[in-house]
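Minutes, project check-in
Item: structure for the 391-residue chain
Input as provided by the requester:
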Amino acid sequence: MVSAVNRRKALALLLLLNRINRRKKRVWVHELNQRRRQRGAFYQLVAELQFDSELHRKYFRMTPLQMDYILSMIGSELQKQDTNYRKSIEPKQRLAVTLRFLATGESFRSLAFAYRLGRKTVADSVYMTCRAIVQKLLNTYMPKPTEEAWREIAAGFWEKWQFPNCIGAIDGKHITIQAPANSGSQFFNYKNTFSIVLLALVDADSRFRLIQVGDFGRSSDGGVYANSDLGVGMDDRTLNVPKDCPLPGTNQYGDVPFMMVGDAAFPLKRYLMRPYPGHSLSRPKQKFNYRLSRARMTVECAFGILAARWRVFYTRICALPCHVDILVMAACVLHNYLLNPTDSQWFQKGRQQERPGNRDTLVSVRNMGGNRGSREAFHVRELLCEFFNEM
């Protein structure tokens, strides 16, 4: 009996000692991070980059002036109150960590060592900054298009890519993520990775006009579109799209609807054109597919520029899907803010250098199936096919 009591006392003493030791290990700021101002990347390297605009652009994907503008817009959202135990992280340092994460896809742990911050502090800073960018800049750099804006987009597609009445190119992009816990196969896609889907409508200058982020990776582009606000809005005609009008330079085809262009994964509708499927297409149908491909490639170009600038999209993002949604939206907003006409010159130059003999030739398009269009949609596609072959 005595031995049992002694054992209980010894166990209680051991638990007490372990608790005391754990309390001794807990500190507000780690010793390494206390030398943040002397050796941290923000106070050393980033401070020196302020004097070299080109190197600053390579490091953060933007110039010091561009970064200062963003800070002026969202700085108040990133400011935290100092306490008696530690000083808060400056808004500019939170922004710097976020831009570096987007630009490289480094792990939070790696950035924590470089900037002498805690890993959780880095993660919280990235999520906080991305939310602030979306809240403060979304309506400025990705506003909901008005009727006049739709007309400007259509004019841009006709001027640059010779596709009439086009209000945007649509496509989906899979954003690779770490497999969420207890998610089953919802996020597992046909590429054998886990992902969420970015559905985007892009104008003639590869600028995002409407996006939707967060659908399960197992969903097809056509399925994502059908359940999106864009798809529902186009069906219900609540997106301020202009009324039907004649094609440029002719009235013989009557009024033709304004439309989007997409690949074979999307359904054929009067306001959404997809290419003719098949391997042995007639010359007129090949020409239609070529014109549609030229216009549709603007969305591929936009995805390419987005990933080349923010290389986090080349990695597997280790974050919860809700956080990844905000990261993607913030990256798209920054894409529009930073987009320069020279960014897509490689694409335009490549098209201009095509051999004249192959100019209207396009590879065959496979039929995805399950997306049969209405009689009116087929009629609109035939009108466009005839229009292209009479130009």
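Outcome recorded: DSSP finds 15 helices and five strands in the chain.
No further action items on this chain.
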